Structures
1.
Amino acid sequence: MATNLKTAPRNTPRAGAERVDARDKVRGATRYAADDARAGLLHAALVPSRIARGTVTVIDTAAAQRVRGVRQVFTHENVGAFDTGGFLMGGGFGFQSFYPLRSPQVAYRGQTVAMVVADTLEAAREAAALVAVTYEAALFVATIDAPDAQPLAQTALLQQPMFADRRAGDAEAALQGAAFTVDATYELPTQHQNPMEIIATVAEWSADGVLTVREPTQNAEGVRHGLTKQLGIEPAKVRVLSPTVGGGFGQKNSLQSHTALVAMAARTLGQPVKLVLSRSQLFHNASFRPASRHHVRLGADRNGKLTAAIHEIDQQTSQHDLFPSSGTEITSRLYGIGNFLGRERLVRTDVQTPGYMRAPFEHPAAFAFESAVDEMAYALGRDPVAFRLANDAAVDPISGKPFSSRHLAECLAKGSTAFGWARRTMAPGSMRAADGSLIGWGVAAGAYKAAIAPAVAKVRLNTNGTVRVAVGGHEMGQGIRTAIALTVARTLGAPMAAVEIVLGDTTAAPQHLTAGSWGTATALPPVQEAAQRLMEDLRQNAGAATAAGDANGATAVALLRASGRPFAEAESRMRAPGQPEQVFGRLTGGLPAAAGPVYPDFVAFSFIAHFVEVRIEPTTRRIRVPRVLSVADCGTVASPRTARSQVEGGVVWGIGAALREASEVDARYGGFLNADLAEYVLPVAADIGRIDVDFVGKPDTRLNAMGVKGLGEVAMVGVAPAIVNAVFHATGKRLRRLPLRLEDLLES
């Protein structure tokens, strides 16, 4: 039976206070590191390796040195000794442990083999093109499918408990006894973050030997301490400033390989030096989402109960680092499956070390697992939403602990009602539009750990009514400044415009890495507590002229003026449940110190449900996504406007991941072939239809006093499988490789 459907006009309200930085951003007033154009600034350009693995044997810089304006060409022969900054996941500070120019070794194509510094950018680039390099090339492994690629068990390589297999019950035995089974393999490509604000570094030294680095980073403290290690100087002699990141998505979450080189050049030449990576260099000199392959096996009984699940993952890493996989962290918790086995393997390839790209493991894992769950629902003849609801979890299947809060069922129920799921017909190919397009409706669930890091917040109120807030955190476009301003304004009775927020400044407050969707849950509770302490102090010291009743109802600035003091300030230090006081040592030392999702008394996740409509042109098989509805369980919604924006952005990312994005690996020479925005295909405005967003909005006060959980990353998790499941509903064809291609649907 064919059903004709029309999409209703969009009328979703955009509630919440205006973003505090919105006007500056749209006017171009917000300044980034790459905008620095002061007089006396020198410019750097990198020389990339043309081989994928080997050694530099000869490097001729004579022609480059003759270019007018060139100050120096730095190579491994003359840059001087400097230490490694280490690998973030190996106790260090960098996105990888390999730092170019420390030796003639070449570890991957596009690696820096020289850096030119000149008076102008044009001269630096011209000279960089003239550096002649001779190599001794070696054999290399380009992909996880290469003949020499060797998948190795993660548990054997990384023997910490957090990287162990995830087990509950006896999944193998339960699978053998299941009445219904699904056995499928899913493939995802390498992908690259492409923030509008490219990675850039400006380094300068003061007369008293203090290094100031301006760099868009999600981890100012890690950059600071990484540089002190590399350069052998005291932490007090390094200041890192990152007030605005301009989009990081995980790519800017640690020390970059070039930062120390820029700092060393500035010291040698006695002038500030600026380096802005090109788009191609961003593809080859920064982290990316690794390629992965997922083997999912599910078992269910005749009543529609999932009885077993085995999720095995092969994930790409580099030759010099082990970038761990943790995709089964969420798939083991999506449903109440009593028998679960999650195993992960790493495959070494000759690339820079992969890293964290928005929902780094969770997006691929959810694509595989939620696609398989949909396949099981159809094998059982069950409605996909009803099937998921019937298999909801009451407690964490892995640890047996309760969830701090879990409202995934409510996300599914609210979403199905708002989407009109009851009008969906079950049979694939049974729904068509008036123009003959095939219509598919798909659903998928997502989860992401609710993590918290230690933080120190400082709030200062002045008699002129201004409030200064300093806290560990980085503004990456997610709206953390707005959420902080809202929190302070509500507590102190101050206008949001009066709140000055200092982020990404290592001299203002310790700056923990902002990633993993823990920014809001980390920064807001201590900010609120500091503001509350300040308010209580003012009420107690308002003076005899202020009656108690007036003090309780007065604004903070009125109380301050009544007290006769020029200012008032308060500080709060907070850490995650179960963390010892010593964790603040890691915070001030620039090391990751986040906790979760497993805490002493509970397990904490954010959840989401996505409902997607696709329309497929019957001849060309072009896929369109005219409508998406997402319902999130992220605890208290601290800033409705920016929260909605986060989910909309995550959905756009999911559409890109499902239908557009893939970094094409050059198996002949290494590196990536489509390393620019002309050929790395991203969704544009014309690809995006209506996106409706709703929230459960129930505080998770077990996790923290404000009841907030992360949102930015869970927003993407599950979008891709919802699209793929919708494509199956429209066509009857199961596609198990991303991104979806027209030829996949055109094949018989």
Note: The radius of gyration is 27 Å.
2.
Amino acid sequence: MLKRSRLLLSLLVGLLGLSTSVVGAKDRPNIVLIVADDLGYSDVGFNGCKEIPTPHLDELAASGVVFTNGYASHPYCSPSRAGLLTGRHQQRFGHGSNPEPDTQWHGEDTPGMPLSETTLADALKEAGYVTGAIGKWHLGDAKPFWPNRRGFDEWFGFSGGGFSYWGDLGMKDPLLGVHRGDEPVDPKTLTHLTDDFSTEAVKFIQRHETEPFFLYLAYNAPHAPDHATRAHLQKTAHIEYGGRAVYGAMVAGMDEGIGRVVDQIRESGLGENTMIIFYSDNGGRREHAVNFPYRGHKGMLFEGGIRVPFLVSWPGTVRSGMKEESPITALDLFPTALAAAGMDPSQNDKLDGQNLLPVLTDDKQRLPERPLFWRYSMGDDSYGYAVRDGNWKLIDSRYKDRKLLFDLANDPWEREDLAAQHPEQVARLSRMMEAWDARNVPPKWSDAHGVNVRKEENTRNEAVEKASRGERSRPDLDLHSMIEPVPAKAKFIDKDFYIWGGSMVRDSDGTCHLFYSRWPRGLGHMA
């Protein structure tokens, strides 16, 4: 089966049109793709944060383009990474949920990014790049899914989702620990994973500074658990709330590591020949992160769950110090990297993103308008959806069990639901979502997302209800004087039934529903 998968992989890579067109091997830029984990939109200085120091990211932002409407392709970790590294909507190939830890290979049903999918590393390696993956993988724990079998020449990191920053396995399967290629790394040699990943990235650049390289640096910071070194905690000693101080230290530690990586690129004389991309895999986590001014957090399709810090820097090629408002998605990074490497991404019609180079290099260019789509799985063939078309955004929420419509031009904070005022937009965007979803497939495995978001919604509602329980009635409110007799013609009468307990409810679409209780008169009044 693995031999057939490799053959299929080779054929798919061939379809990408990987022959370089204009750029020679020595002139092709290095590509460094840096991913943060659960980072809040407003937890970096270039998006306005004042309490967490991120000077190195801010410097990168000043040297390149910041996308203020940059989106992850999914509101949580593993599906988002699957979309990033394939350039395709992850729902196309059934990667719609986080895989549960499972190091055993069970054939094609094993949870993980399908082996039939071509990764960005596959494409760039075929084009002559040396490729390295460092950090969190989260695209399958069984060995056939590991990065060094998915197009990466080198790998230093761990395969799963959340993991101790000290490298402690506890009672976990040893295969879930940190690896260098296939070899496990002794936890005693690790310091703090953020620092360790930064060190490995610096060494990778030093080893390959004379050849074009693709470095995928996927930090697990600032994902839980909340672990930080004393040195990093000193950077947020001014933050009085302890949980926020620890989270901020994890962000600051990642920023420091990114600074080391950028310094090495410059020391190697590669500053103007390296494209650096930074973004977060989804919105900030519920605890301690700040997605201000946007609504929601990781796991949601409100802006706070999918709009993320997003920048591209390539001194001398990409515009500097610019903010671009065009909506983009992480799916755009695959074709952009191919174009930067001198390849023609249009030769692969499977890619769902757009090449961003024109808008990155020329301020007169504009990206063609296109809708952006999202879907998460709630389990049991139930899904939540969102679509953004221009400034209209429709969310079909499964935990709120309704559709919400927002005008992001006037309400980017998603405070005012306009679904009742604009049913024509709800209908139009719903048709667009249905057409897009027709090409998707069900998730190959499930996760706890549906259960968790419903718990969050219930917890929120309980907190709101609890807060108002002590409210007293207005002493000047005379309800008796406000009650008027019901006219005979307004009574609901059925000659065959006793009727009581009637009430009227107006639905969000304007439809009125009458609820009442009844008892057959023929049985006599037995109440």
Note: The longest helix spans residues 242-267.
3.
Amino acid sequence: MSNLIGPELHGGTVDPKPHPVSPGWIAGLCVTIALGLLLVVVGNGAGLRGSPIAFPVYWTGTVLVLVPAALRVSRPLVARGERLVILLVMAEALYLVKVVYYPLNFVGHDEFLHWTAAVDLITARRLFLTNPLLEVQASYPGLEIVTTAVAHLTGTSVFVAGSILLAVLRATFVGALFLFLEKISGSVRIAGIGCLVYMGCPTFLLFESMFSYESLGIVLCALTFAIEAGSRDLEPRQRYGSVLLIGLVLASLAVTHHLSSAFGAIYFGGLALTEALRHGPMRTGVRLVLVTSAVLAITLPLLWMELRGNPVESYLGPVIEHAYKVLLNKIQGFPVMPAEIPNERPQQPILMRATTLFGVLLIALCLATGFFRTWGLSAVGALRPGWALIGEVLRKRHWRDSRLIFLTMVAVGFPVSVALRLTIGGWEVGNRMGSFVFFAVALLVAVSIVHFWQRRAARGWRLHASSAFVAIIVMSGSTSATIDPIRGMFRVVADSESIETMGVETALWTKEWLGPGNRFSSDRINRLLLAGYGRQDVRIDVWQGITAGRVFLAEQLYPDGYYALVNGDVDFLLADLRLTFAEPVMGYYYEPWEDNTGMKVPASSLLKFNDVEGVTRIYDNGFQIIYDVRALHAPR
């Protein structure tokens, strides 16, 4: 049993002498991936028509994109350059899988928020403009600054500039992660398999390829990790120069994304603490670089928060507190809170759920067999294989690389992130947490595959099984990324599946006939369209403490709603009768805290404004109605 979870590590590199780079394999995999992308496009087109072939065609294409390349990269004798090229092609192919879902414009909820901010920056030519849909974004304009710079240099729109930037970021991330894992593990195989495992992260396919500040933030994290790890082998003068580069990247991170900068602070702070616990000599300047990086990673975000006075604490605090309470209730067996009772929502097909579950189980198995092996890999003088290496690490606190020790401890967060994703209240925290925990998961799973499943001379079933394990883990990242990644017909409040021509045309009409900058209030989806396409000033609250849902969903315009319209500054209300078709996929129509969660909204609630004196219906396309309420708060 001890040999199952234990090290049995050998000194020197575990990488056998690789074969030369095979252009034939690279070309063949490129053709296979291209064919897979074509099937993904056909599957999305079939989904728009409601065709039953959409599911098998789409997932056949996804398998062709991921599985053959994953099987090749995970083999022992593949050359370093070949692994890296295939990984970069896979990364860009997965990005294209997201792009072909809606290739003409941004479609994700968070993408609309940052698209609006980028257009505001181009129009107003100044930073820190208020974003009512995401207040904290105004304090972190890094993504918008880079995107608008690309747009000005290329003369393209924000969408095209953002798409180019995201493609570059995807390749940069995989390259940085590969170099980071290669440097700390000393193995090209571990680096290649680790990158594959990270592609199995639920956020890699869609969330980290969105036009959102985390997509840039996580790349900056990977870059700082790779730069710092690579600096230890430099000459002292060059090593000190790397501190300047790390400081520049960390400063960029501090103004780009709050959670990514927090993770950077945790990583460098924890790494510095782990290094302080280590016994043994270190070359001149290495510890100084690490300590300086930790100080910068911690102080720069705090200084920026102090300078901007941004609402990060009020923005993240309630979300984290709620997720903690929900997880605690689950562990203790208490009933969930009423807000945690889900509506009837579409379920994933059984094959998708089985792949996701199998992928999670394989990751857990590899973490169990890779935990102590990663510690053993960090031991000094690994010429003596066996559990003595672990004793040297634990008792003598003697290891060669503190990064291995610290990342091994970070991997403990994986089961926590999975548990949080099982609850509605904790899903967002678990999802964001997984993006950063997978840095450690990728390392430990790769160590398990190389040192336990494949070992030094793996052949037969062990070699084939380990490659299949990696392929399943990569596939599970796609199956767990979303309920339904295939573009389908319109659904009520389903974010990307609710973005369609009618809503876009209505938003464009407001810009053309009413002009930009009017104060609008509407549901979750139309707020995004009005802000993005219509360039309107959307409001979540109709007046202080009176939310849009409270006004729209009421059976009649009660005194508090009428008072809010009279005393507020909202100019127009957009009512969408399609909300009456079904319950919202996201669980709510306007705000997560609305009173009638889980109830279908009646048409009479949205049409009640027809009978209010002073309210004028100025637009009606049969489903969407725009009410002019300016007369209610006009001077009398």
Note: The longest helix spans residues 350-378.
